[in-house]
Amino acid sequence: MIWRYSGSGLFCSRSAARSVALRRADWTGSQMVLEPRWEVPIISSMEKEAVQIETHLFADDGETVNNPVLPLVLMRGTEAATADDPAAWFEERFAANKWGASWRWGVYPYHHFHTNNHEVLGVARGEAELTMGGARGERFTVTVGDVIVIPAGVGHKCESSSSGFEVVGAYPDSVGPDLIRSGAEEAGELRRAVSEVPLPDCDPIFGSSGPLLEHWK
Questions:
Q1: Which H or E run includes 188?
Q2: In the chain, which residues fall in CATH 2.60.120.10?
Q3: What is the pLDDT of residues 146-198, one digit of tens each?
Q4: Among residues 121, 131, 134, which one has the least CA distance to residue 166?
Q5: Three-state DSSP class for residue 20
Q6: I need a labelling partner for 71 at 20 to 30 A (CA). Which of 4, 38, 53, 148 fits?
Q7: Which residues pair with 21 in a beta bridge?
Q8: 3-state percent breakdown (helix, strand, coil) of the chain, nearest 5
Q9: In CATH terms, is domain 45-215 a member of 1.20.1260.10?
Q10: DSSP string covering 60-127, please?
């Protein structure tokens, strides 16, 4: 492991493509507190071109508020599909692009949504059939390497999955989500909360020049 210093902090390089950055030290007495994050990766045009992009806009159905402005963005065929450890690949890429508070698990088997932040799911193992957009939404089959960027308010539910199905989830600026079951609360306040969620600074996979920012304006 090789350490080096730059004007923005200390860096610990594992390889040219994968490295850990340590933020500028926060000195507390005689101790130095360091918080890890991932360096922004260098992304080739070939990597972007290999990914297939789908967008889907869902209307409010009375139980799931969805999002009247921002479409769900589905990216198929990211390089995670061929990575030795897809879950770690997603965690590193998400963190490098300011999507944090990450976790590894599945998707709840009931319609739900978040009103205080957007969410990204990267499929790390297996495949599943997900319903997006609430009970009147659409079903999608997702597999390893696929990425689903879910705007605040948009419903999602796992209908079925293979054994060991796993996704990596994360959120802009590491703001963890609330959890609202579709139809469980009065919709007016929920719609207002969704409308106030700010846009992320970066695409969770491709950073500041990613396709998400072309579809979310």
A1: helix 187-195
A2: 45-215
A3: 999 999 999 999 999 999 999 999 999 999 999 999 998 888 899 999 999 99
A4: 121
A5: strand
A6: 38
A7: 11, 37
A8: 15, 40, 45
A9: no
A10: --SSS---SSPPEEEEE--GGGGSSSHHHHHHHHHHHTTEEEEEEE---SS-EE-SS--EEEEEEESE
d(CA 20, CA 26): 17
**pLDDT tens track for 29-88:** 434 333 444 455 666 667 778 899 999 999 999 999 999 999 999 999 999 999 999 999
The answer to whether 153 and 117 are in contact (CB under 8 A) is: no
Please report, to the nearest 10 degrees, the dihedral formed by the alpha carbons of residues 75, 79, 83, 89 taken in order. Answer: -70
And the tokens for 114? 């978040």
Q: How big is the chain, counted in residues?
A: 217
Q: Alpha-carbon distance 163 to 166, whole Å?
A: 9
Q: Which residues contact 168 (CB under 8 A, 6 or more apart)?
A: 87, 90, 91, 94, 102, 103, 104, 121, 122, 124
